[in-house]
Amino acid sequence: MTTGNAKPSGARRRRPRAEMTSRGTGMLASGVVIAALGVGLSTPILVHIGVAMTCAVAVAWIWVLLAVDSFLRTFPLARRQVSPHPLTAGRSGTVTVTIEAARSRARHRLRRSLAEHLDIREQASAELTGGMGTKATVRREPGRLELSYAVHPVRRGRWPLGPSLVHSSDPFGMFLANTPVGEPQLVPVWPAVVDLSATAGALMGHADRIVLGARTPSPDDASLRDYREGDDLRRVHWASSARRGTMLVRSDERAGRRPASVILDPPRDPKALEWGISAAASIALSVLDSGHPVRMVGAGLDPAAIRHLGDRGSAAARVDLLNQTIDLRAPVSRGAATDALVRAASLTAEDATQGEVTVAVVDPLEKEALDALSPLGDTGRAWALVRSDEYLEEEARATVRALRRSGWRATTVTAADDLEALWTRMLTAGDIS
Fold first, then answer.
1. Do 82 and 207 share a domain, yes or no?
2. How many domains is the chain partitioned into structurally?
3. Is 422 left (phi over 0), alpha (psi -120 to 50) or beta?
4. Is the pTM of this model over 0.90?
């Protein structure tokens, strides 16, 4: 996918600006001094030389301003394309900047001359370039200049890109001008994810075996729950709703499409936050790939707007789910994180009794959060990854023991662990230390 619409660089007219170089400063100072000496010594030749040097600086300044103004009028179109869009942390992408001239045959030669001599560079945040410079490939055509370069996003989020800067100067190098072209934009970057699709069948299949034994779910195994805002009206069971006097909907358990919820407890540490989001998103995507609806709940995700994704197809659901993670931020305090986790557990508990699978990616938990999560373990369909980096090891082990006593299948995990290998062992071997 691409983004970046053509926008006239003159749509918001910028005043041409030029900066004096050290050469221009030296020329101007020398001209003033020589002219002053000529006046003081009554030497007309020195006055003429000083005035000529000062005038040369003025001419250079006018030259650059006219060149910039001519450029803005002649090349009004600038657009940027980012592919793929959004980008993904840890995966390279490509940015193409195209500057085009206005379509006017009368200025064809001027457009061609300017395009052949333009020096253009792109501005990109360190989060998109990895803190390294970019090597661009430039292609020049009459009335058109195209700049292509690779980006290497290193962090999830929205990061600034552009505007492009066109470098120009006078023939003597006394003034320089960097002219912004096009508009800046914020480029979204998805979190890095691990392919866990091979394990999703084990996760959802294990949940089915717990509830149904060896029996295969049939279309008649639909359970009913109260209607909530955002539910698909096509799932409303009208006969039962009429009998009870309240709207009831079929759960997604029927036809083997058991839903899942992934609870995310965002850490306050920036590096740990990225790992937690990546792990939660990887697990959620693996559920989608297995054909089951899934949702992510936790701090930063509005409970009122949360719904299971997957009814519109896996591809669209993947985009929706990853888009939810772009703007996630760390909670302002551990207390705020605990409150959000309690709300997420309460929301998940409403569907847990209907057969929903629960996976939690959490930090070591406070007692209030443990009390909220414990009932979910009674269903036998709850898994937890508890972060145990550095100083959190003892607290993490205590959290794992408490969750296991409540029926959860839980283990400690660090950012250095191989998530795919650990998750596979957890699903196939049960609890691991």
1. no
2. 2
3. alpha
4. no
